[in-house]
Structures are given as C-alpha cells and as structure tokens.
Amino acid sequence: MVREVSKSTDIIYPDSDGQPMADNTKQFRWIVVVKENLELLFADNPDIFVAGDLLWYPVEGNNRIRRAPDAMVVFGRPKGDRGSYRQWEEDNIAPQVVFEILSPGNRFSEMVQKQAFYNHYGVEEYYVYDPDEADLTGMIRNQGMLEPIEEMQGWVSPRLGIRFQLGEGTLNIFTPTGDPFLGFIELDRRRRDAEAERDRERQRASLAEEERDRERQRASLAEEERDRERQRAEAAEAQLQAMEQRLRELGLNEPPHPPSE
C-alpha cells in the first residue's frame, strides 16, 4: 500500500490499517451492494463523495485516531480518488453517514469503540447491518449525540432519502424513487436489458424512419405522376386549341350562314 506523508507535520498517514475489507463473502457482498448503490444514487452530484473501506483521519497530527467505515457518504466534498480521508484537507467536513456490515469476527468491544468514534467525530447517521441475522440497527444525531432509532422498519434516511425494509431473512433498501438496491450481477443484467431495449428502440425508430422514407417516396412518385398527368392534359389542350385554330384558318369550323330572304 502507498504511504502518504503530511507535508506540514511529516507524520505518515497510512492508506491501510492492515485489516481485510471483509471476513467472508456475505459481508463483502453487502459492503459492495451498499457502497456501489450509493455511488449510483449520487452519480450526478459532483459534490457528494462515497467511499468504502477508506481510512478516515479526523485529527491532523494524530495518525492513531482513525476508522475505516465499510461505507461512508460525505456531502459537500468532490468526487475523486483518495488514499485516505484526511478531514483537515476536506474543509474539515466529517462523513455524515456511515455503514458497518457485521461479520462473525466483529467483537462487541470493537463495535462499541466504533460507535464512540462516530459519535465523537460528528457522524449524523450510523447504520449497522448483520446479514446473518437480518438485523438492522441505526442511530441518528440528536442534540449533539447519536441516539438509537427506535423503529428501523420503513425508516427513511434524512440525509440519503433511502428507505430500509426488513423482509424475509434479508434487508431491502430502496432509493427515493422506489428502486431497490441491487447486487452487481442484477445491476449488470438490468444494464444489459436496458441496452438491449435501447437497441430494439433504435431498430424500431430505424424501421419507422425507413417506412417514412418509403411513404415520402410514394408521395413523391404520386406527385410526379400528377405532374405528368397535368402535362399530358395541358399538351392535349394545347393540341386541341391548335386544331381549332387551324380549322378557323381554313374556314371549316365557321357556322353556316342563314339563307337569304
């Protein structure tokens, strides 16, 4: 891992704490689901930074005070790659929302320490999900302290606008528009389905345009035929007038004179 040095203090702020991102596949899958769907949710907002398993250093000059939330969201900071989140270099803005996904390896004392850290350093919303037990707990800042959310079923995050719904042995998370958080495979399938539908729509549009072209060609041919018919009628009329003129010249079309009395 890259090791970065603060130029002002020459203190090293490591980019890694040496701990694995996850202890098992289920925990890892949930971390990815939460982090990636949050990325998608705020993809169009350049001033919302989302990260997963990124070390957060809240205090300049102390590299021992740090945590790496499984997922965190920072409003008011630009997107972009970072080796760590050093708060004093980020307009001193603390992550407002953090998520932790439990694994069997998590100790009670560790979770207590994390809660104390997030409470002390200004996190506004703190969510902990245990995928083995399908159990979700949350805390929200009230009068300067993180306090437990009494009812998580149907809870809507004030900051994120997402809704939590505990179902049959799992957690469902919905965006403000009601779309569910999805795993990578399902997201990829939906992406491919959307691309296929766009291809079909382009084909339908192309066929419709071809039909419009044919209709324009038919209309053009019909107009050309009407022009030719007008030309034939005009030619016939001109020929008839010429014949009448010739007859008049020969006196053959003069009406007979009435008999003399």
Write the layout of secondary structure elements.
Elements: E1 3-5, E2 12-14, H1 25-41, E3 48-51, E4 56-57, E5 71-75, E6 85-86, E7 97-101, H2 108-120, E8 125-130, E9 135-142, E10 145-148, E11 163-166, E12 171-174, H3 184-250
Parallel strand pairs: 4-6, 7-8
Antiparallel strand pairs: 1-2, 3-5, 5-7, 8-9, 9-10, 11-12
What percentage of amino acids are in beta strands? Answer: 15-25%
Basic shape: rod-shaped
Please tell me how large the radius of gyration is.
39 Å
What's the architecture of the largest domain, going by CATH? Alpha-Beta Complex
Largest sheet, spatial ordering of strands: 3-5-7-8-9-10
> Mind telling me the CATH class of the largest domain?
Alpha Beta
Please, what is the average pLDDT?
88
Could you name the ranges where pLDDT drops below 50 across 5 or more consecutive residues? 1-8
Q: How many helices in DSSP terms?
A: 3
In total, how many beta strands?
A: 12
Structural class: alpha+beta
What are the salient characteristics of this protein?
12 strands, 2 domains, single chain, tt1808, chain A, six-stranded mixed sheet, two-stranded antiparallel sheet, alpha+beta, 261 residues
